[in-house]
Amino acid sequence: MRRCARCGEPLDEHGETCPKCGSDLTDPTAAFGAVPAAEREISAEIAPAEGPMLVVRKGPDVGETFYLDRARLTIGRDPECDIFLNDVTVSRHHCRLLFDGGEVTVEDTDSLNGTYVNGVCVDRAVLCSGDALQIGRFQMVFLSGGGG
User: Fold this and answer.
1) Closest Cα to residue 92, out of 79, 104, 78, 80?
2) 0.85 cut: is pTM over it?
């Protein structure tokens, strides 16, 4: 039997909202476990950059680079997010990155599958160069740029 991901209420097979909590049941995020660490470090293959970036090293779109060029970036499956990760294992509004005083912080925004830094599920964490950030099936390496 299908259950609401938010409150656990039993659901009929064709409902679009939970009768108990009103949660939207359309286009759900699929559950997915942590991806094991990559066998080789991709950062050695990437040209240095002036600022921080994320590089996909496992999962869909390996090698894609996202430059962190603003104080706040959203990450999720919603095409309106700054970093759009098109996979059902990613929540619509999965997490956000905050860039302040030379530090980049990742904050989970109540995603279904969680946000992982170096294999540990976090609500909030400061990223260091070389950290592995996992969002659904996407495993990315964070590079601080500027030689850091």
Assistant:
1) 78
2) no
